[in-house]
């Protein structure tokens, strides 16, 4: 929690309380439905919460922004972002129903009214969004076609509507193979000092 407060010093009391409750809630739900590895439960704040919030170091979502989290698993990056941006609307989807059960239970326990978890494959999601966020789902060349028709025309940010994807390691080959244009990468090591973030990046791909 100390690191989170250092990296995000402007949290209000409600946000602090919600973040503080996350490790306990996930430990409790993980005992019933395994959604996060045991090792990661021990490092939940760093590896899941702060990592998810890396997207907020790239873009500060304005109130009213509609965001889709594809392949959210237990709710990452969607749940931490929804706590940070309570005036934005988040749809968190996954093709595995039990993961979405955990997402909805956690959101309900925290009183997060801006989160909806839906058991659906990415390709079948209905609706339009300003941004799509994601982590650890598939290579970009597979991912982009799933979401290409889901972007709203009107943009409300300095960055055009598009994808903000949390990736690690060597990306050049994967991004080249995707044939997508105007890709930008942002190193999280510029924001977070822990070793875990050394190779972590946010990849931004504008809708095209
Ligand atoms: C490795 S997990 C990552 C979960 C979460 N994003 C995280 O970083 O903790 C990948 C998730 O993507 C989901 N997934 C894979 N293909 C999908 C698809 N076509 N539509 C929706 N979810 C999908 C899987 O069910 C799984 O929960």
CATH class: Alpha Beta
CATH architecture: 3-Layer(aba) Sandwich
Strand order of the largest sheet: 3-2-1-4-5-7-6
What would CATH call the homologous superfamily? Vaccinia Virus protein VP39
Arithmetic mean of pLDDT: 96
| General shape | globular
Number of domains: 1
Instruction: Provide the structure class.
Output: alpha/beta
Q: What count of helical segments does DSSP give?
A: 8
The value of Rg in angstroms is 16 Å
N- and C-termini, Cα separation: 38 Å
Determine the strand fraction and express it as a percent band: 15-25%
Helix content: 25-40%
List the ligand species.
S-adenosylmethionine
Main beta sheet: 7 strands, mixed
Q: Give the low-pLDDT segments.
A: none
The counted number of beta strands is 7
Order of helices and strands: HHHHEHEHEEHEHEE
Q: Provide the CATH topology.
A: Rossmann fold
Provide tags for this entry.
single chain; 208 residues; alpha/beta; Rossmann fold; seven-stranded mixed beta sheet; 19% strand; binds S-adenosylmethionine
Description:
The chain is of the alpha/beta class. The protein has one domain (2-206): Vaccinia Virus protein VP39 (Rossmann fold, 3-Layer(aba) Sandwich), CATH 3.40.50.150. It is 39% helix and 19% strand. It contains 8 helices and 7 strands. It has helices at 2-7, 13-32, 38-42, 44-58, 78-84, 97-110, 140-147, 172-178, and strands at 66-70, 89-94, 115-119, 131-135, 162-168, 184-187, 200-206. The chain has a 7-stranded mixed beta sheet with strand order 3-2-1-4-5-7-6. Helix 2 runs antiparallel to helix 6 (97-110), helix 4 packs across helix 5 and helix 7 (140-147) crosses helix 8. The mean pLDDT is 96. It binds S-adenosylmethionine (SAM). Residues 70-73, 76, 93-96, 99, 121-122, 135-137 line the site of S-adenosylmethionine. One of its GO terms (molecular function) is methyltransferase activity. Its EC number is 2.1.1.-. This is Ribosomal RNA small subunit methyltransferase G. S-adenosyl-L-methionine binds at residues 71, 76, 122-123, 135.
């Amino acid at each position: 929690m100390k690191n989170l407060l250092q990296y995000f010093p402007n949290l209000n009391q409600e946000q602090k309380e919600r973040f503080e409750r996350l490790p306990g809630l996930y430990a409790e739900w993980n005992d019933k439905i395994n959604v996060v590895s045991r090792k990661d439960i021990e490092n939940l704040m760093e590896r899941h919460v702060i990592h998810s919030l890396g997207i907020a170091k790239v873009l500060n979502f304005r109130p009213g922004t509609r965001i889709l989290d594809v392949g959210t698993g237990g709710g990452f990056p969607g749940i931490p972002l929804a706590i940070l941006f309570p005036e934005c609307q988040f749809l968190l989807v996954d093709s595995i129903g039990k993961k979405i059960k955990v997402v909805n239970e956690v959101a309900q326990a925290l009183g997060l009214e801006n989160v909806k978890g839906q058991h659906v494959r990415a390709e079948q999601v209905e609706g339009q969004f300003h941004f799509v966020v994601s982590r650890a789902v598939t290579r970009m060349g597979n991912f982009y076609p799933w979401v290409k028709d889901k972007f709203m025309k009107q943009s409300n940010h300095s960055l055009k509507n598009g994808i903000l994807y949390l990736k690690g390691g060597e990306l050049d080959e994967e991004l080249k193979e995707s044939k997508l244009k105007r890709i930008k990468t942002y190193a999280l090591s510029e924001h977070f000092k822990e070793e875990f973030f050394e190779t972590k990046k946010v990849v931004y791909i504008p809708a095209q």
